[in-house]
């Protein structure tokens, strides 16, 4: 793996070798091992392995744990659990959508093969079309079987799920197409690596309508501040005249118990855009997100504000 100083937005994760579930499984426990968080590992007891396969893109495993229910692991990294998935899914979807001053009609999801983000977007009644580009068809298949409360999003008639490369999909879509794009990616290793690089962000900018918004998985302030800083710097360059912000949420089974979101808005001729206040009422049925949590998500600790100073929109 490259050292943290070598990992940049132009080539994050360079040299990283994806792991497998078996590498972290020993004596009935799974430990999430990765050089992206050296010297630490979250360990969960494996009550039963429910599913294990190797897709064309990654190692896929689902196991059962008495504390967190079913656990999805891709390339040796925990992606979601029954117990805490909603804190991530609700935030990555509602932080951008509830910041919009108008009702979104057409939204794109990149990744998100477990269906959780799609479920949250489908709560918004104004949305007419939800396109989704997921590179690995094994993930939706697995989620439908073992995570039905997340995969329920795929049943919405507005959802068009396409098993395809997200970057290729964006490059082929028409300019000014979407009100919002949500990128639910894994870490910048293996198939998700391109989702942290400049060509991908440039393609998203082109595909957005003026004033449209992007929300991407933004890693942990505690573990990846240098990578976050480089991505923020790149976003400010790509979204010239627009808005770039960073927010975060808590989630017990992600490394450090926290995960962030890079939020960008395409420039528009209207008034300056701000993510920091909710402009639309949240949909019904949420368990984590509300207007107060929205505002609090942008209150960064001092060390993060200092590192990101000059790269985020004030």
TrEMBL record:
GO cellular component terms, A-Z: cytosol
Domain PABS: 27-266
GO molecular function: spermidine synthase activity
BP terms from Gene Ontology: alkaloid metabolic process; response to jasmonic acid; spermidine biosynthetic process
EC number: 2.5.1.16
Residue intervals passing through the bilayer: none
Segments forming a coiled coil: none
UniProt keyword list: Alkaloid metabolism, Polyamine biosynthesis, Transferase
Signal peptide as annotated in the record: none
Reaction(s) the record says it catalyses: S-adenosyl 3-(methylsulfanyl)propylamine + putrescine = S-methyl-5'-thioadenosine + spermidine + H(+)
InterPro entries: PABS (IPR030374), SAM-dependent_MTases_sf (IPR029063), Spermi_synthase (IPR001045), Spermidine_synt_N (IPR035246), Spermidine_synt_N_sf (IPR037163)
Pathway membership: Amine and polyamine biosynthesis; spermidine biosynthesis; spermidine from putrescine: step 1/1; Alkaloid biosynthesis; nicotine biosynthesis
Gene3D superfamilies: Spermidine synthase, tetramerisation domain, Vaccinia Virus protein VP39
UniProt region (Disordered), positions on chain: 1-20
Active site: 184
Entry superkingdom: Eukaryota
Any single Pfam family the record assigns to this protein: Spermine_synth
Residue spans of biased composition, Polar residues class: 1-13
Annotated family: Belongs to the spermidine/spermine synthase family.
UniProt name for this protein: spermidine synthase
Protein species of origin: Pycnococcus provasolii
